[in-house]
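Tutorial, part two.
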Amino acid sequence: MPVQRLNHAVLYVRDVERSVAFYREALGFEVVMSMPGAAFLQAGGSTNDHDLGLFQIGEQAGPSAAGRSTVGLYHLAWEVDTLEELQRIAARLSGLGSLAGASDHSTTKALYAKDPDGLEFEVSWLVPAALITEDVLRGRESIRACTTSRGRSTRWRSCSASRRG
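Running the prediction step on this input gives:
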């Protein structure tokens, strides 16, 4: 049987308690298990044992260079079930000073934010299949025209569907 979905993610963070507080406040995650220097959190609507593991490596840790000078993970995307929930989370992330951007990917609507260690994540809402029209699909094609083969926008200002350059 092929892989079906992502079960959980694990992040190295500077301060596990600070990160736990952030993910609880920003996304409503709850701690299901913790120990000194580590915590395992679960999203409210999840059936996973845990969705996010956090391991503390200390305040001396430098920022992630992934995507700038090293290879590495760009971001994780958490899915919500309604547009209203996405809007609620947008307000919460904005209030926390974490909202980094938003994008309309035609068939998905997405928020981008950074946690206390500067690690980026996405929260997205998938447009229900019944609402996907030819116009919506044409919007997806216009997004493709604005990106390089690596998925990065080449013309941020002229491609309004792109989030960043």
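The longest strand covers residues 108-114. In part three we will examine how such features are distributed along the chain.
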